[in-house]
Amino acid sequence: MIPIVKACTEPCYKRVITVMGSQMGKTAGLLNVIGQRLDDDPAPIIYIAPTKNNIDNVIEPKLTELIKSVPSLWTKLAKGKKVTKTHKRIAGVSLRLAWAGSPTELASDSAVLVLVDEIDRMEDNVKGEGQVFELAEARTSTYADGRVVGTSTPTLGNVDTFVHPVTGLEHWAVSDTIASPIWRLWQEGSRHEWAWPCLYCKSYFIPRFKQLWWPEKATPDEARLTAKLQCPHCQQLIDDRYKPQLNAKGCFIAPGQSVDEQGNILGEADTSKTDTASFWVSGICSFSPKKTFGFLAKKFLAAVKSGEPERIQGVINTDFGECFKVGGDAPECSAVLERKKGYLQGQIPQGVNLLTAGVDVQKNRLVYVIRGWGAQYESWLIEYGELWGETDQPAVWQLLSELISKQWQGLSLSRVAIDSGYQTQSVYQFCRQHKHIALATKGHDSLDKPFKKSDIEVNVRGKPLKHGLSLWHFNTDQMKSWVHSRIEWPLDQAGGWWLPEDISEDYCQQLIAEQRSVKPSGKVVWVKVKTHNHYLDAEALAYLAVRIVSSGREFVMEGQNYVMPRKQRRVISRGVI
Fold it and tell me: What is residue 182's DSSP assignment?
């Protein structure tokens, strides 16, 4: 922890990111950073934990103990009513304890130093206000020396290693299929990793799970008694009892650096392009006497034997400090690019008979796609984009109103499916104003049908109002699975799924931002492996819209044409649909 704590005082760093397993000293290190700053150079500080319960029962008692144990801090602490569990004044400056579930707490003060503990245990979007780390950085923007410190055990991500061509050391490779927020932040920094010297060949290496050794076909208890660490250079097995000695000689090294037998670091970390100091330590290196090599091996094998992916993930994340690789299915980016079809965005290719749109609602924008449909659900992406603006305000909804009123080479939109999971009332209001075209939707992990309608506006007897608003519930697995299946649809078969030639890389990456995984129980889960997946959600909604249109309730699909029921044609002619 010493180099990490020192990095928190270096003026060249605006971020300090630490990734490691449990019982590694993360929280103790953050408390030391707080104490040092308040004692030596007082300035406002905010500490953010995952939950209020964590603040009340863990952090605040430890912080109080810290302050009492340091006489100079104790004398500077304001006493009496000025002191509360979540707000203290020391040396005339504010120390606030906040938690991820409260945007009000996070937005209450500015601070020169914000510490975010266990980032991966926090919500992606705190009640619509944004990610916790983004909110934390915003708190420091008024200070020239403002800094954010983030720590966590990681969660999901597909990460490989690479051997540096000059130093021969094996490092984590940068990956674009990472769901873990802390690992994404770590990749943006200096990427220092904790290294040990081999007791036999004296060469330094970076311990990680793949180097933990136990006899083949060993039971969990047999692995507990025999597990050792294997040096990747000389293949010698290192016993657990030498761990304190190895940690004493350990050091952080970044890609491009090496260490000689005397422990001198050779070469410089390439920090010229980043203001983030990032550190990773394997849980194998934990100082805890309980977490021996044998303990870790037994815990992993027991988790594997249970067959529960969540249990295996817990061991990989918290005990080893590594990302858990997602074992799901998703198309490759190259498969998405193969769907280009020789037309440009905004053009209507031959065969398009009907247009639908899907809209994904975010805090500060509406993400949309417009797709043209032909026979056998062959489809072409006509337009896609983002309408920027706070979605709790009317301005961005006016932009959407103007968009859905457009025509594309004489064709108008038939239906627009809008996700109501976020900014629900704003979505409902928009759909009331555009009842002839807009559909409020809500996705479900499981549903007995692909989609079904419910009435959300009823009279006092519980009967639906004549022109009341309806909500369309849909099975997210079926809709997203259809999109992914069409990406990999044979190019020479009817029912193709096509993209314009000027499609962007960002759009393609968002379509494969989630992977479909089936648990042993049979339950299907969609795992997010990239930061943004909005276009995938919007494409699923555009498909939902055409399914509703062609279900017989709206339009009837017959071969190459879309035929409207006679009764509905009369309704539309009166402009009452």
Answer: H
Tokens 């602490």: give the residue. 77
State pLDDT tens for residues 516-531: 876 655 677 787 777 7
| Domains in the chain: ranges and CATH | 23-152 (3.40.50.300), 161-268+276-319 (no CATH), 333-573 (3.30.420.240)
Length of the chain: 577
Tell me the C-alpha distance between 439 and 417, whole Å.
Answer: 5
Residues 6+ apart with CB under 8 A from 83: 77, 89
Q: Is 5:267 a contact under the CB 8 Å cutoff?
A: no
273-309 core/surface letters (b: 16 or more CB in 10 A; e: else): ebebbbbbbbbbbbeeeebbbbbbbbbbbbbeeeeeb
Region 43-70: what's the mean pLDDT? 92
How many other β-carbons are positioned within 10 Å of the β-carbon of residue 364? 13
Is the pLDDT score of 446 beyond 60? Answer: yes
Of residues 560 and 543, more confidence is placed in 543
- DSSP symbol at 315: I
Q: Specify the amino acid at residue 545.
A: A
User: Beta strands of 350-509 (E only): which ranges?
Assistant: 354-361, 365-373, 379-388, 407-408, 411-419, 438-444, 451-455, 470-475, 497-498
3-state secondary structure of 226: helix
The dihedral of CA 203, 205, 210, 215: what is its sign? positive
Contact 215, 226 (CB under 8 A): yes
CA angle 63, 38, 288 (to 5 degrees): 40
- The DSSP string of 488-509 is TS-TTSSS-EEB-TT--HHHHH
**Residue 120 CA from chain centroid, whole number:** 8
pLDDT, mean over the chain: 86
DSSP letter at 108 equals S
Where residue 563 falls among pLDDT bands split at 50, 70, 90? Answer: very low
Pairing of strands 161-163, 147-152: unpaired
Residue-level pLDDT at 561: 39
Would you say 86 and 55 are in contact if contact means Cβ atoms under 8 Å apart? yes
Say whether pTM exceeds 0.85: no
- Euclidean distance between the first and the last CA atom of the chain, given in angstroms as a whole number: 66
Alpha helices by DSSP H, 271-372: 293-306, 309-314, 333-337
> What is the 3-class SS of 37-55, one letter each residue?
HHHHCCCCEEEEECCHHHH
